[in-house]
Every structure is written in C-alpha cells, then in structure tokens.
Amino acid sequence: MEPLLFIFLASFATGYELEVYRACEPIKIDTCKGIGYNVTSMPNLVGHDLQKDAEMQLNTFTALIQYGCSSQLQFFLCSVYAPMCNEKVSTPIGPCRSLCESVKNRCQPVLQEFGFPWPSALDCSKFPPENNLQHMCMDGPGEDTAPLPLSPVYPGRNPVVMGVGVVANPKKDIYPKNTFTESPEKPCSKYRNPDKFVYINRTGRCAQHCDADILFGKEDKAFAEVWFTVWSFLCFSSSLFTVVTYLIDGSKFRYPERPLFFMAMCYTLASVGYGIRLLGGRSDISCHIEPQHGINILTQEGLDQSNCAIVFLMTYFFGMASCAWWLVMNFIWHLVERKPGQKTYTHNVIQRYSSGLHLVAWGIPAAQTITLLVMMVVDADELTGMCFVGNQSSDTLLRFVIIPELIYLVIGAGFMASGLLSACSSTPNHTALVQVPAPQRGHSLHIPVQQPDTETAQSSKRLCIFSVLFFVPMVEVAKFLGVHIDSCLSFATHVSYVRAIILRQVSIINRVNYFLPLDILVTLYYSFIYPYISYCGSVWGNTYPSVTNKLKSAQNRAVKAVFRLPRLYPTKDLYSNFGIIPFEQIIKKLNLSLAYSAYHKNLPPHLLTYFNSNNSEGHCLRSSNRSFIVPRCISSSAQRSPIYKSIIQWNVIPSSVELSTSFRTLYNNVLKS
C-alpha cells in the first residue's frame, strides 16, 4: 500500500510541477541593468543558483567588454548569466546561437591574442539555433560597427582579458571598472529622458512609458481631453441629425446631394471612435503591457492592442472615406453643372453609376486602412491617447495622412472650381419639361426646353456652400506638408550624418585612450573632431536649438573620451577645467569674426550693405557712432542669421575693444571683459 501511495503522490507532484510558472526576480547585477529586460531567474544557463555568484563570474569579463571587440558582448553575457525570465515560460530565455557565433567571431581572436581559449561555458552549440515556440531565445540588438583590428600590445598596459579564471591586477589595469571610459551607448540614451523609455528588441525601437510626461504635462493632457470631447460631441450630434433626417425621408437626398448623407454618416462613425477612446480611458486604449519588460508602454503597433485597433479603424477609415465622398460630391456637381449642348446628368442618370461611385469612395479608404494594419504602423498619441497613424513618426504621418488628404483636396478642388464656374455662367444647363398645347386633337406635349430649374439651382447653391466649408479646414493640412518640407530643408538629415561621423571618431578614441598619452589624445581631438565641430558652427551655429543641441552633446562626449571622464561628469565645468572651446563659444567667435571683417571693410560690397544699412526701422543697441545698425527682422528665422547675430554681439562689446589691431587680440579682450 505504501509504494502505491508513494507513486500516486510522486505523479501528483510531477503534474503539479508542470503547471507551476517560473518565478522571476529583478536583475541585481549592475552590468546587466538596462540592457532591454529587467527580470531574470535562477539557476542560470551555466548553473549559478544565486545572482551574486553569477555577478562574480560575469565581472571577470569586464576588460573584454571595455575592449569593445563586439557591441553585443555585454548583452550576450547577460543573457547567459542572467537570462530573461517570463512567468509563462518554464525555461529561461537565453541567447540564440547566431548571437553567440557573432560575438565569438569578433572576440575569440582577442582571447587568442593573449593566449586564452573561448570559454567552454559559452559553447555556441548549447544555445537554440533560432527563436521559436519550442525553444525561445534572443537574437540581440545587432552589431553597431565592423569588427575591430587587434590593437598593438604595449608593455605594462596590456588589457587583462577575463572570463577564464584570471583576476585583474589593479596595478596594471588602468581602468579596471567602467569608470573613466564610456560604456556602449544604451539604445534609448538619445532621448532627453531615457529612463522613461524602454528598448523593444522585436521592433528595434524605443517605446515610451504609458504614464510618462515627455512632450506634454498632465494639465495639457487634461485640457486636450476636454477639448476633443466637446468637439467630438458636437460633430456626433450634428452629423447624427443629418443621418436621421435621411432615414426619415430619403427622398430629400437625391443626387447630386446624396453624398452629403454618406459624409455625415462617416463623421458620425468617426466621432464614435473618439467616444470609444473617452469611455475606454487613456490607458486601456492607447497602452499595453510589453511582454519583454512587463511595463505598460504607449502602443507602437496597433495589432498589439485590440481596443487601439478598433479606435484606429473608426477614425482613420471613416475620416478618409469622408474626404473621398467630398471628392465624389464635387465630381457629381461638376457633371451636373455642364455647359449647354453637353450631356445632362440627372438623378436617374447618376443613379446608374452609383455602384462605381461607392467603389471609389469606400474602396480606396479601405485599401489604405488594410495597408496600415498589415504594415503595423498604428501608434498612440501621448497628448490625446488616440490611436491613429503617424503619432510617433513624421514620415508615416506624411505618407499615409497628409499626402492622401492633399490628393483628395487637389482633385476635389478642381471639380469644385469647375462646378463654380459653370454655376456662375449666364446659361446654366438645367433642363425642365414644359407643357405645350398640341396643334391637333386637344392634346399637349411635354417638350424639354432650356430654362432655369429652381430645384436644381437651389441644390447647386447648397453644394457650393458645403464644398467651400469643407475645403477651408482641409487647406490646413497643407501646412503640415510645409512643416515637413521645412524640416527637410533645415539639413536635419545632414546634421545627423555629421554627428554620426563625430560619434564614430569618439568610439575610436574610447578604444585607444587607455594606452595613449593625454597630449596625443588632445591632438586626435583637434585633428578628427574639432574640424567637424567648427564646420557645424559655421553652417548651423545660429539655427534652431534642436539642431545645435545634437552637436553640443556630440562634443561633450568627445571631450569626455579624450580626458577619460565618466559620462556623468558635469558638463558645466567640462570645458573651463580642460581648456577646450565649447560649441557655443565657437559660434560666438565666428560671429565676432564676421563683424570684425565688416568693421574693417574686409567683406564683399554686397555683404557690407547689410552692416551699413540706414534703415530707419532698424535699431542700435548703444549710442556709439561706430555701432552697426541692427536690421528689423520680422521672422524668428531671420533673427537666427549670422549677420543678425554678429551685429548683436558686436554692439555689446566695449568701444575700446573695437580698436584692437587684430581679431585674436579683440577676441582675447572680449573674453577678459
């Protein structure tokens, strides 16, 4: 009896164990914090039962991580020693074999250079070949740069390679911990508040926390919710009134006025989408739990959240359908208002082509909506919590909202203009049946004659008024296209390109600064980085702060790399302590150089006219006759021009400084004053 009872209990315990989910715990290893997930479980993939034991073994790889043989090395090691945990998955989620092989191909030559083999605990054959439902694994963020060549070995400054039981010698290891050298940049560190974003490996993008206030505060969000609540209710009420009127007596909406009913129906259902968002709440509609991190994030792919997808379908599809029906309405109006002698389109004639009109008005918006759902570009807006397209991507907004609406607008406006011209003509093409007595047998004939039709004329007036009222707010869409073009013309792409070049140079300095003397590092800065900084100051020094801030941050990282400073070193004292000219000072120096050349008449005549203008609307900042006249600039963009800025800076320096014999003397005197 006892053996049977033991077998029964053992089988029960085994069955129960299969149902128990894996217990997850927060990652306590400093090296593995902020790598893309924040929970793990023990034992890990190498048999450690405690995170403390795993951290001790992981710290032996510190020098290899700092060496930078692979940008994925840190992620790979953490996925082995602190694998990702999901309570619904019974096994820890470690690295894929492709990730292991990528890191091994880059770092194994470095180990062999110092006489160490690849650790057996990191044998790539132990890891799943691909990520699937049977064996889940992580592919990693991908390599940032090409494989680095092996650096020369310098006596007494060899990087001590860890991971195979060797302990670092503090006397020979200049920077044993990642204190004075920059660690690999976190994927979301480019944002102003990186702690409010999480990196999603599946999409390769940073997602914002659901309750984070990045661009807008809580008061702004509350006001926006009240604002679109009022307008969506007014839209719903007025549109519903039109729909009910049609349902009561559909004969009032004959062609060419019938598209008004379909437009009203589209606006009614679109406002229902806003109502769903209001009733469902911001968090339940626009946010969802990301399984990788277990954090509530703002939706980036509409299919991740069914409620978000429903709101998108209601607002986008019916919004585009309303534009399509406006185009169809203007097309019908164009046909009705034909010139005399051309074919007359009455209600019955248009009714025969109604199937084609419905196919265009409903089919094109449906194709747009399906395309967006397949591409998974539906995202949520931080301000309103609405799910739409282009809330987090200006390019997507341009391609799928602005350009389609502009196409509807331009084509519809062409038909509207044609209808207006025909309606304003002296002989409109309205045909009526006139009863004329017959010459025999007392019968009368109904002969179509060309004369004004009062009902059709009234219909044309209503269509004209409604088309114009719809056209005016649609023109505002063109402003968004102008903003996008202005962004392209502001050389933002080129600024990012130059910044990427600077950061690549910084990456090189980071890899050699532990064995090169300081004077050589400073020479590298002025040879490889300062020319780009100076170039950017000359071209974009006086432009928008959103552009210059990118260049400032790149210079900050470069200076910290040269002087082996941690990333959190105060920027305020960075340049004054080490004698490096900051980006803002470079801009001022260039502006003063321009004003100095103008003061000594060393500029071309057409440029000197801007400094010697006697415009009465200009103003002078001090009473000296030697001061330049500041031109009156109406736009803020004109006030960011180098000439305007140089005049402002020149007019505030002391008069005695203006008489300096050389620009270097003048600049030094300005710094002293």
From TrEMBL:
Signal peptide coordinates: 1-15
UniProt entry keywords in alphabetical sequence: Developmental protein, Disulfide bond, G-protein coupled receptor, Glycoprotein, Membrane, Receptor, Signal, Transducer, Transmembrane, Transmembrane helix, Wnt signaling pathway
Pfam families registered for this protein in UniProt: Frizzled, Fz
Stretches assigned to the G-protein coupled receptors family 2 profile domain: 224-420
Chain ranges of the FZ domain: 24-140
GO terms of molecular function: G protein-coupled receptor activity; Wnt-protein binding
Cysteine pairs bridged by disulfides in the record: C24-C85, C32-C78, C69-C107, C96-C137, C100-C124
PANTHER family according to UniProt: FRIZZLED, FRIZZLED-4
Protein name per UniProt: Frizzled-4
